[in-house]
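lol ok so funny story. i was supposed to be doing the assay writeup but got distracted and ended up predicting the structure for this chain instead. priorities right. anyway since i did it might as well share w the group, maybe its usefull for someone
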Amino acid sequence: MEEKEKVQSFSRAIAGIKEQIRRDVVGQEEIVDSVITAIIAGGNVLLEGVPGVGKTRLVRSFSKALSLPFSRIQFTPDLMPSDVTGTNVIEKDADGKMNTVFRKGPIFANLILADEINRATPKTQSAMLEVMQEHNVTVGDTTYSMSEPFFVLATENPIEQDGTYPLPEAQMDRFMFKLIMKFPSVEELADIVNMTQKTMAETAEAVVDGPAILEMRELAKSVPVMEDVLSYAMNLVANTHPELDSSPEATKKYVRYGASPRAAQNLITCAKVRALMNGNYNVSYEDIEKLAYPVLRHRIKINYNAVNDKLSIDDVIALILKQTKR
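and the output, tada:
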């Protein structure tokens, strides 16, 4: 298949996935695009939103459209690591002998919804570190590999913070994107009510499967990045560090500490996917600029000056973008 045909095939598959997701999810176009990007790029997503905006429905709909097994883990303060990963149990076999058998936990699926991940204790949160980064689970002396593609969408409630445990920076960095799921408009709210009056079940149908997603991932890896665009992306990440002499004024004034090298990796990996989603076979400056917000917003920390000037993290990212030369 020629390069042009592969790009067209990729775009058609994306259009098909979006069409099916729209059967279950009203609006949230940017969120849907970003989740598709992360799944194909092989990353995880942290989704912030108030209860009832359709976070669970979104992941269930994706599991149907992508024909992938789905698992939901409700994080609570009493959840233990073994409740997530699974544990070794002793069972009798047919001959009456006692054997140790591994019982897989809910993490063994392709699409995982980690609901209210900040409600679990740090001990349980840490059980997610290995699987999110390396797609492996180690129990005792044995390491189990997850089936690909593997994707974690974790949710946080931005309002109710009592009894929660903030995610450590090392775990935040494991997320490719942090997305903000906004409350729907009045028109969208009416559409949601009408949709759920007919059925509460997801109606999306399979468009692609796991092997097809992995093929799309391999195609995305082959997308070229011009030296100038790559340099711009690297400078953008470097410009989030206030300790560097070359950083812009906005960074030195408003940023406490900057993004990790993983941010640079994610920017380029996702930009390649976004380029293909838009029917292009090369990464543009626009791809980098659009992805800067979800890639950087959970990786940089703003200081008191930003709070005092009533600037959000997204406002600071916008200033850094403006002061980063192409």
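The two ends are 34 Å apart (CA to CA). Residues 173 and 299 are 6 Å apart (CA to CA).
back to the writeup now i swear
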